[in-house]
Amino acid sequence: MKLGLTFLILAIIIIATVGFIYVKEQMKPVDSEGVSYDITIKIPSGSTTAKIADILEENSLIKNKYIFKIIVRMKEVDGKLKAGEYSLNKKMDLYQIIDALVKGNPKKTVKFTIPEGYELSMIAEKLSKQNLVNKERFLELCNNVSLFKKKFDFLKELPEGSTLEGYLFPDTYEVYKDAKEEEIINKMLARFEQVYNDKIKYKAKKLNLTMNEVITLASIIEREAKLDSERPLISAVFHNRLKKGWLLQSCATVQYVLGERKENLTYDDLKIDSKYNTYLYKGLPPGPIASPGLKSIEAAVEPANVDYMFFVVNKDGSHTFSRSFNEHVNAKNKNK
Questions:
Q1: Residue 204 and residue 191 share a domain
Q2: I need a labelling partner for 200 at 20 to 30 A (CA). Which of 83, 84, 172, 210 fits?
Q3: Is residue 220 domain-resident?
Q4: Contacts from 240-243 at CB under 8 Å and sequence distance 24+?
Q5: How far, in Å, are 53, 140, 197, 312, 314 from residue 132 at the CA level?
Q6: How do residues 137-178 score in pLDDT, each as one tens digit?
Q7: How far apart are CA 22 and CA 24, in angstroms?
Q8: What is the helix (H) or strand (E) element at residue 199, kind and residue range?
C-alpha cells in the first residue's frame, strides 16, 4: 500500500514537472535567435481573448493559443486586452505581448512601398517626401555598411567599400511614424535576408557566384527587363557574355554612372570612365546598380537555357533576342 502511494506521488511529481517545463517553453518567444522584425496585427474592437489568441497564433507571434488564454486569466486581465493596431515581433515572450495588449495606445504606423529597380538615392527621396527620413542622414547610413554588419551577417560578404545599394529589398513596409532612419534600414535589410534564402544560395554556389555578384547581376536584369517572362532570357544573355569574356554592354549601368536614366545615351556617355560602365569594362560592375526584386534575383541564378548573345528593346517594352550580331542589327533596324 505504501509502495503504491509512493509511486502515485512520484508520478504526480513527474507529470507536474513535465507540465511545468512544457508551459514554460510555450511562454518563450517564437524565435529568439532569428532576425527581429515587426509584424503588424489588428485587434478588432470587441475581440475576445480567444479571438486575440487566434490572431496572434495565425501571425506566428505565440506558440500556443491555449497557454496564452490561461496566462491571461492567471494575470486577471481577461477582457482588458485593448483593440487597435500593434507592431509586435517574434522575439517577444508571452508576458511582453500580453503587457503590450493591456497597455494599449499603440503607436501610429504608416506604410510605404519601394518599387523594384529603385536606387538608394531614389529610396531616400521617396521616404523623405513621405516625411519618414532625413534624406542626407539616410544616405549617410546606407554608405556605412559597418554599422549594420553586427546584426546582419550577410553584409560581411560584401567587398570593402560597398554601400547598401541593392540590399534594401523593394517591398511594402509598415513602420512607426516616428521610426528612425536606422530602424527603417534594419527592416528592409531583414526583408532581404528573408528573401535571399538557402535555395537561391545553393543555385548561386552551383554557378560559382558570390552574393554580391548575384545581386549585381539581378539589379541589371531588373533595370533591363519589363516583362517577368523575359528576365531569365536577359539573364541568359549576360551569363553567355560573361562566359565568353564579352562586354555586357548594359545601358542601365551607364545610366547609373550618369546619375540619370536617359532614354537615349550618346557615344560620349558610353565612353565615361567608370568600373560601372559595362561598355568599357568586362565582367560585372563592382556592385548593384539598384534594388532587384525576387524575380530578378531568381533569374540571376537560374538563367534560361538559350544561346542568345544580344537583345534589343521593342516599342512595346518587350525585347527581341538574337544569337548573332547580324540578327541583332536587323532587330534594331526594325525598331527604328
A1: no
A2: 172
A3: yes
A4: 240/307, 240/308, 240/309, 241/309, 242/283, 242/284
A5: 32, 15, 29, 39, 38
A6: 999 999 999 999 988 999 999 999 999 999 999 999 988 888
A7: 5
A8: helix 198-206
37/46 Cα distance (integer angstroms): 28
Residue at 8 is within a domain: no
How many domains in the chain? Answer: 3
Residue identified by cell 548594359 is: 250
Does position 308 have pLDDT exceeding 90, yes or no?
Answer: yes
| Residues facing 40 on adjacent strands | 87
Q: Which helix (H) or strand (E) holds 88?
A: strand 84-88
**How many C-beta neighbours within 10 Å does residue 291 have?**
29
Determine the length of the chain: 336
Question: Quick one: pLDDT at residue 335?
Answer: 73
Task: Please provide the average confidence, as pLDDT, over all residues in the chain.
Answer: 88
Strand partners, 41: 86
Cell reading at 27: 511562454
Are 211 and 306 found together in one domain? yes
Identify whether the C-beta of residue 122 lies closer than 8 Å to the C-beta of residue 222. no
Average the pLDDT over 249-269 and give the result: 89
> Cα(265)–Cα(17) distance, rounded to whole angstroms?
74
